[in-house]
Specification:
2 copies of one chain form a homodimer. In chain A, the strands form 2 sheets. In chain A, strands 8-10-7-11-9-12-13 form a 7-stranded mixed sheet, with helices on both faces. A 6-stranded mixed sheet of chain A has the order 1-2-3-6-4-5, covered by helices on one side. Helix content of chain A is 34%, strand content 25%. Chain A is built from 10 helices and 13 strands. Chain A is α+β, with helices and mostly antiparallel strands and 345 residues long. The interface between A and B is large, with 77 and 77 residues.
């Protein structure tokens, strides 16, 4: 009958729909702004052949982390990592960060110092300067906003939009572990809440817990690619899940992608936990997110350079756009891939 | 008797104490990092003689703004302005911003669009590109984190630490208006909450309301200074209140400052509202904050250039550090100035 058509819920759009909607009309005014919204980082040309890269991420208590099991020091470390990962995903190196934190006044100085000790540890590990930020009271739990600044030669920067038909699709490390760590922590929390006398049983799960609570960014991969004399044709970091990132590469590069289920790298610990929790292991790698590995495409002529490399796995290839997004299963069936990235709303 | 000495409350430190505590041990690793924490913006050298400036500010619902009377469009506009102001305060020009927003899913798309319409309006007004950011669900009210990026020639950048004894202390525009606008809005809100049938009476108070709800950054002052051939010896924007900013200049420049009460520029509308609310007008300019005017020091030899300039008022002078921080009152008495900036905790 009567519908109020002037109100649109955020849930109906999802995060990427919202971003698209809010940013589609942006017109860039400065010629130095080489890349605005739509990649892992913005790119600003600051001298002949030289660029500054900038990215920012917001971490909110109750949405991105649960203080019930997330140690404050690890929280500070991870908050930095997720931003550095975006700079590496442009084939660039982070140099500085700014850190803004909002906390309730009920927090003690020592608690804030824990967060900062993690931030400083990440800065030391990744050779990054902490150069500024903001602190504020918060009525609303912990708010962490970090901006990372990197640099790269203009011709070395890799965007999401450069993949071509026949290019090979590669990922670093293994996938799904961070999500399995998250699921394990959530399960143990539920058990503890229901019966506080039961202690959480996390023993023997170091790998997936570390993937969730102390992820690392693939700083080494930038050097590995350089040493192999490979410039990827496109690249993105895996923060929202493999499937979602494949869709970003495909839509921005105007191609299709086919990947092979049996090629997706997974640690045995990830596989076993998925089985224990009665989850489909492949689905966990496709939709899990937070692995902070790199997904990139290379020319076929670079295949021999990455073949059998311990840090890099070829999982598929780029196709014509008309072929769409496909997962070839272990028994040879072709399934249409769905973009099941992280949905914030 | 027994004190728990290992727990320190944030209230006992205050915002600046917390920042000092968390950042005092930072050692910068990259030679390109010219200025880290401690000024309006960080400064990164990116080419011979050329620098990128970066600053970030966090705005949290219930701390920095009250949606009870703050229109969403104005909120977006102001969130940009407070960041651009920090870039101008370095005698530099902003070129790009990144915007991260966290909102509850109960918000409609149209409400978010209102915030963004204010952000886009500020970008248009100040010739700035929106180049990136993040969006997230929030369980905790609206969170806005903006990062502004500017550029300047290395030798044109003005820091907080360059003021010398005998330099003149100048401010732009007039002070205290934003605080009076805030006090008026808070008063009318209290009246409305106590008796919802009474409509807020804001008529005739356009100036102070605009100072609070739609502040502007002093983009023009950067051009004025250049036209007058003045490079300030130090500069800061007035976000936390004149007194607090004077202390930043003095402590970083290792000097004392004396200012004259009768020189502090105040709009009649600000003065009248202070009187109506039974507040000391001078105290409102010293401690009010959010005016986003610029406070700077110049050499005495530049006095004639700014004398009688409609946008600039000389309010005092720099002294030896041993003379401390002083306010010379209208009747000639000398009072010690207190740093009563905004206390977040």
């Amino acid at each position: 009958m009567f519908e109020n058509t002037s109100i649109t819920s955020l849930e109906s759009l999802g995060e990427f729909g919202l971003i698209d909607h809010l940013t589609k009309k942006i017109q860039l005014k400065h010629p130095a702004t080489i890349k605005g919204v739509g990649d892992d980082a913005a790119v600003i040309k600051n001298a002949e052949g030289k660029c500054t890269l900038i990215t920012t991420d917001l971490l909110l208590e109750g949405i991105h982390f649960d203080l019930g099991y997330f140690p404050l020091k690890h929280l500070g470390y991870k908050a930095v990592i997720v931003n550095l990962s975006d700079i590496y995903a442009m084939n660039a190196k982070p140099k500085q960060i700014l850190v803004s934190i909002g906390v309730s006044s009920k927090f003690s100085l020592e608690a804030i110092e824990e967060i900062y000790s993690g931030i400083h540890a990440a800065c030391a590990q990744y050779n990054v300067d902490l150069v500024g930020g903001d602190t504020s009271a918060s009525k609303q739990g912990i708010v962490i906003s970090i901006t990372a600044i990197g640099e790269a030669a203009e011709d070395e920067i890799v965007y999401r939009n450069g993949a071509k038909e026949f290019d090979l699709v590669c990922v670093t490390g293994d996938l799904g572990g961070a999500y399995m760590g998250f699921q394990l922590l959530e399960r143990e929390k539920r058990i503890y809440v229901n019966n506080p006398e039961l202690q959480p049983d996390l023993s023997g799960h170091d790998y997936i817990l570390e993937r969730q609570l102390k992820p690392e960014a693939r700083k080494d991969v930038i050097d590995i690619l350089k040493a192999l004399n490979i410039k990827p044709t496109s690249m993105i970091d895996i923060s929202d899940g493999l499937s979602s990132e494949l869709f970003h590469i495909a839509s921005q590069s105007d191609i299709g992608i086919s990947i092979y289920e049996d090629k997706i790298p997974m640690d045995p610990a990830t596989f076993n936990m998925a089985r224990e929790l009665e989850l489909d292991p492949t689905l966990c790698t496709l939709s899990g997110g937070e692995d902070y590995e790199l997904l990139f495409t290379i020319k076929q002529s670079d295949f021999e350079k990455v073949n059998n490399h311990p840090d890099i796995t070829v999982i598929g290839h780029c196709t014509a756009k008309s072929e769409g997004m496909n997962l070839i299963t272990k028994n040879g069936n072709k399934h249409t891939l769905l973009a099941q990235g992280w949905k914030a709303f």
